[in-house]
User: Fold this.
Amino acid sequence: MLKILQFTASWCPTCPQMDIVLAGLQGLEKIELGTPIGDRLANEHRIGSLPTVIVMRDGEPVWRKSGLFPRGEIDEMLEG
Assistant:
């Protein structure tokens, strides 16, 4: 099963817009992580900016993107 890790923060102005981009994705488990840059989890996943989305398959990252991006980019990855 695919999982989406969405790294976000309350002070991030584009993070709420990413919720709209990711809304309605089917067949995935979405995990939103309110993670400030510099904490252990952010460092473990090498998060340098927010929002960052990482798609995981069997516990391994298969795709990642930072910043706001159009829905079509993640749709293409999921179809491929």
Observations:
- The two ends are 15 Å apart (CA to CA).
- Residues 2-79 form a domain with the Glutaredoxin fold (CATH 3.40.30.10).
